[in-house]
Amino acid sequence: MLLQANEGSTSMMMKLYYTVGTCALAAHLALEEAGADYEAVRVDIRNGENLKPEFLAINPKGAVPVLVTERGVLTENPAILAYIAQRFPDKRLLPLDDPFDYAKALAFNSYLCSTIHPHHSHRLRGKRWAEDPAALTEMARMVPQNLTKCFSLIEAGLGAGPWVLGEQFSVCDAYLFTVANWLEGDAVDARQFPKVHTIRERVRMRPSLQHVLSIWRAVQPPAS
Amino acid sequence: MLLQANEGSTSMMMKLYYTVGTCALAAHLALEEAGADYEAVRVDIRNGENLKPEFLAINPKGAVPVLVTERGVLTENPAILAYIAQRFPDKRLLPLDDPFDYAKALAFNSYLCSTIHPHHSHRLRGKRWAEDPAALTEMARMVPQNLTKCFSLIEAGLGAGPWVLGEQFSVCDAYLFTVANWLEGDAVDARQFPKVHTIRERVRMRPSLQHVLSIWRAVQPPAS
Q: Which of A83, A122, A135 sits opposite B103 (nearest CB)?
């Protein structure tokens, strides 16, 4: 087993570690949509909280989202989203009863984490891949065209809707909303992808999103 | 539904599209381990076959692996691996009966596709993120240190083995073998990660790998 964490009572409340502005939004939205009983714990990356020993003890990768369950720690959005969908099957957050449809949903989420997210990161987190300032500028220059190409592919692959997988809202919508919300900051006009844009607007109207944003926007008391 | 493809008879043989030297090895290995009835179709990226209309009609992303099933097309390794494990449950290629253990396996595969693979790609496929030659050189320079950091995290997260998930060989081993096999080409000595190195050596001994490599090494007849 990987990244073993505290085993505890099965009545333990789940904890989601998130950072404002990050892809942890997808996991947070999924927990709300599931009606889960959980505690949201903010991790301030600007203060380096994600690299402090207390957090690295939970996730050695120093990244969010992290979902702590009574069985241990889960990381990586596609895995956390799948787990939430399986833990709350009545919410139909993934097509759990059809291996092919389920794999299509996994493929959708996998593309977001393996291709869209790294492209996005080359604008503000380019230091992962280069230190030279000219190289950072060059990488940032290509972000809009890369994301335009990727979202064109997503747009072309979407069906009649109203959601990513069809009639039923799923964690794919939560994840698509999260990464599509970065487009304007990356100088890409989301309206050139009408289906993506419409799904984004639909998610924006959901009470789950409003509730998560109220948590994210709340001023946190200073750490004692 | 996304990327809808040919619906056909349920007796249709699956097809795996692969390119020699790519991460399609993980999916190919999984099919062999599953004892699946499938046809392997080579896609020569050097000749640009992945960008020809015939292939883009199957996968508009122009990437491998692609698994064509009687229900349609699947892309993205984590999704293809999960599908193969679900289609051949007796082979226990993923812990399908335990949502938490299953999510841990998904998280493992997700880290390989979203973090390890992009780091690796910055050496030979850097043109995805920069065109300036100096930027390409700078990105390639950082590949060994990035992969060393990532594989150190994987190593620290592995348990007693003998496999990634414990007693049972899984698609995680097929995927780890695939990306760990790139280390030497990226100027990283895999022996500094003893558990990863040992799993790699164990996979290397499996008949499934030997069979896949015999297919990959076979000289293909020239296209007519």
A: A83
